[in-house]
Amino acid sequence: MKASIRILFLCGIIVFTVFSCKKENTPEWSDFVEGYIVGTFKCDETGSEEGQATGSITDMGYCILLEGSENMDSSWPIDIYTFNLPSGLFNFPDEIYTVLWDHSNCGPVFSPDSLKNEYKLGFRYRNPKESERIFFSCGPCTMNDLPFPWKDINQVILKDISKINQYK
Amino acid sequence: MKKQWFVYSFVALFTIFALTSLTSIKERKFYYAFNEKTPLISQENILLVKFTKEFDRVNMENFLKDSVTGIQIKWHNPFVVEISSESLTTIEDLKLKLKSQENITSCHPFYKSEDGVDMGVTDEILIRFLPDVSDKQQKELHDKFNTEVIKETKIYQKLICPKGGDALEIANAYFKTGLVEFSTPDFISYPELFQTLPNDTYFGYQITCHNTGQTFNDGHSGTNDADIDAPEAWEVTTGSSDVIIAVLDEGVTSDHPDLPNTRQVRLNGSDFTSGDNDPSPVGNENHGNACAGVIAATMNNNQGIAGIAPDCKIMPIRMMDKPPSVVADAIEFAVDNGADILSNSWGWWTSNPNRYPVVVTAINYAINNDRVLIFAAGNTAIHDENNDGYVTFPANVNIQGVITVGSSDRDDQQANYSPTSDWYSQNNQIIDIVAPSHRAWPCRITGETKEMWTIDIPDSAGYNPWPDSGSCDNPPPYEEELPNSGTNYLSYTGRFGGTSHSCPVVAAVAALVLSIDQSFTYLEVFDILTTTADEVGGYTYTNGWSEELGYGRVNAFSAVCEAYRRTMSITGSSLVCTSNSTFTLHDRPQGDVVSWTKGSYLSYVSGQDTDNYTVKASSSSVSGSSWVKATITSECCTVTIQKDIWVGRPEEGYDHLINYYGVEEDEYCPYDVFGFTLIHDNPTYAVSYYDWEIDGSPSTTTSPCKDVYTGDEGYKDLYVEIRNACGHSDEYVYPYTVTDEACEPGEKMVEDWYFTIHPNPADNYIEINIFGTDEPYEIQIYNSINVLLYQKVAKKPVLKVNTAKFKNGTYFVHCLVGKEAQVLQLVISH
Fold first, then answer.
1. Are strands B244-249 and B341-344 parallel, antiparallel or unpaired?
2. CA–CA dist B166, B504 (Å, integer)
3. Global confidence as pTM
4. Which fold has domain B569-647?
5. Looking at the 3D structure of chain A, how many domains does it have?
6. Which of A103, A138, A146 has the CB atom closest to B473's CB atom?
7. Can you give the residue ranges of every domain in chain B?
8. Which residues from B are below 8 Å from A114, CB to CB?
């Protein structure tokens, strides 16, 4: 009798443990959309949103403006950004993909107007799971401007990526 | 017929003349300067309007501009505006339209005196009644004129007139009652400093330095005196070439027309961005120039702007766009190369105060080397959306003495983007001080842009012409030229702002302070800047500090005067008796004039107008706290230094006795020992001795502490007199009862002996007295970690112990008689 109670108690603990662990759901992928690479950045990784710098530098971040976006003419022409654009997809010139990045620019460097429509791609995207999210800090920045609104712009993960401007 | 026509004509002309005269008599205004009728000249094309506290300034400005065209607006304070136009018709038109506004309390033409001094009238009156006018009479008069007293000082009453009343007429009516010494409107009239303003072309737009409510960028106008009082400060100092301000930023143009290399310390290795020796900006990177110009642009060169500390030197260090380790290198470089002040208008957009430990450590290095570090707080707030923002890193670094600078605006209000302190945050979210900058970005408040003036990269690079297309953070139109005229106009810009602008303003004021005396420490500079800042904006200041503006808006004039004051000191005795006491003023600058004043109980002996001022007690019977003050007047500053003193013998009744529980009890257990301490409410007695008497047994101590053996039950008194060099106080009596009822259970003492220690705290020796026994006793002294330091068996009732080699600290003295032991605490203080 005592043994069966122990087994039942043990099972209860196992069931409780399994079901109490919150499963991190994978956010849904978007429909297939089109957009443009309009800027790049590299910054210092931080362990969390307000954490200390870890000493690592992020991979190259890419700013994407979606086709038909209302942000086209804003001071910050960006809808989403990603760190997982395959290298070699585009042959960026220095204006947009500078080799001098040293992870200390204050936010992204946007490409000149002449190149804003040049790097077009199609893709699906989703928000990262909390465990996938990359936290980072850019700067130093001069204090005569507004902060770059990172919190208003979604970090995303891309898939099914295709280059649309094949001639580039 | 002809004669008749002549008579008619004469009568008509006389009538016209009489009417005209009557009209002009009616319009002639005056006020009473005491008994003298003093004319006021009405400026009919200028209106002075005062609003109720409920009015909305933005709506009102829009109303005024929509109502009539061609008017100039100048705010004298948040509720009083001066409106002028070249056209009388416009003003008459405006008067009619203002009649519909319910939130106006007064509206008058602007008056001037005959010698041209502004004498604006609102709805307030200043009045002083004759000495024999009773309160009842005063009230009757106030009721008669329907006025209300809103302030009363020893000098005057301030009255407010009824809405729509004419303050000038009411003031004159008060005077005519014959019951007042004076009665005048509380004129809008500013004392003129006898100063000259710089001749720099765009100085009139530098509202940070000198805000008169003038119209400047984009048709904006601020509030009179919402500035740092720079011209007043320049009467004291324009800086010293020995004071160097490092501007860690995007670099500074070599030999800029308004900042020559003779006032730049350009060092090899100071370009950390490119790793070369030239800290000049590249491309449109004007931010470093902008900060440097605010601090040290040349004054009085008939072009450009005036820096706030134009005779100090800039050390440009180019370090933006580099990682934290390089930022740390740049800070170390500035310190190692002799910069006194580091101006830092940069940061990371995070509230973590330890984001980059290497930067925190570099800041510590600078502080430990006694450098003044000033950081911009960041532009993270959006107050019109109730977002208080956060103080960025490293402005929020948790190191005492680092100065965190927010922004005020042209009206001394918190700028829309300037973060509000969060006292409860773990992340040191504290604003220390603010300085003027622009009000808001256009995407937050329509019509606002950057509007601060400074230097620019010469020619077409930099901020003039404006390099970006119009947007939220880059507000001016693309290629706007501001300024677009004047000598080297492309070397200047009116488009700087944010906390980036406020930071070098404070850095420059710190430089002026150090120019007064370079030996001030970074903490003294922090203290001078924050204690002299103006508590403006109408915010709640607790102990001089507000969440919105920290200690307030920096004031250069007050800061340099305070610095000047702190270079001097008064020495002399803190006790004055009937013999002469001389007080000496030290370090008075040559040419400055000193004048002494004294407080109560003192008689002047000699030394007025010299550095050595001698006084004495006015009689042997006086006693009390007093002071001597030296007022030092230079050409521009008048400061006062005070030394507090005590005059005469100590005064009984100010003090009280507490036992070693810290309370005044009146019942004690028998055969117990209690330590009593006389607490001085007035520490300036300069006491030499304390004379005690317990149970008829007198004793004297040099400290205010006395151990008392309670002995048998009964009513007892403890007497004490305080002696200083002038005499002694009356006897202070402390009655107490010794009773079994005061004993805690088990506390009752059975010993009939006790011992005492004098003095305590002690220096080189102590005297131990044992009472109530003839038996031999043993004294043991232990330190705080229970190590035995002294041991002696004695028989005489008095034992002297040499404590000269004891270190400062607390010790425990054990006294053993037979098997019984008692312990007292001893403090050694050499």
1. parallel
2. 46
3. 0.70
4. Immunoglobulin-like (2.60.40)
5. 1
6. A146
7. 30-185, 203-560, 569-647, 672-828
8. none
